[in-house]
Amino acid sequence: MKKRLRAEDGFGLIELMMAMVLLNIGILAIVAAFNSGAVALRRASHVSTASALADAQMERYRALLYSQIGFDTSQISGLDNTYKCDSVLGASCPNTVTTCSSGTCADGTVPTLTCGTANECLPRRTVSSTTTPSSPDGYTYRIDSYILYKTQNGGRQLKQITVVVRDGNDATKTLARLTSTFDQTVNS
Q1: Which of 31, 38, 89, 113 sits at 20 to 30 Å (Cα–Cα) from 21?
Q2: What is the pLDDT of residue 2?
Q3: What is the rounded CA–CA span in Å between residue 86 and residue 176?
Q4: 3-class SS at 149?
Q5: Every domain of the chain and the residues it spans
């Protein structure tokens, strides 16, 4: 019986099982780290592309004269609650969205809507791999533009343009937001 207690038969098998379990835990931890890294890179890629799309949309507005900045009035009625409930429009939801081209300037004139291309006339548009211009990474993005009239202390009227780029598959995810103010005395 004493011989049996000192026998080490099968002990190597137990050591092997323990080593395999520890190795398995280590490999799973490395795979999880790679997976979370891939998710973070994908998210960063979407945010970077969305920022570039927002900047490109804002550059379209910057290329126009103050009196040319506005929306196509036929596009306002088809806006959904995601657009109408954005924080840029205020606290109440849904907000009423008025056309920028119906406002009057500080000098009493009504801005004329003469857009260079259709993209700056649209309050909401989608960019994907099938649109022109297409999405750089093939992912779908939703670009919402807001034009609000603001009045300075001196009485001059300003147009505040905010471009919001959202995830094209989930409009509740805002990826980029860019705001710029246009002064009619500077950009006429």
Answers
A1: 38
A2: 59
A3: 13
A4: strand
A5: 11-183
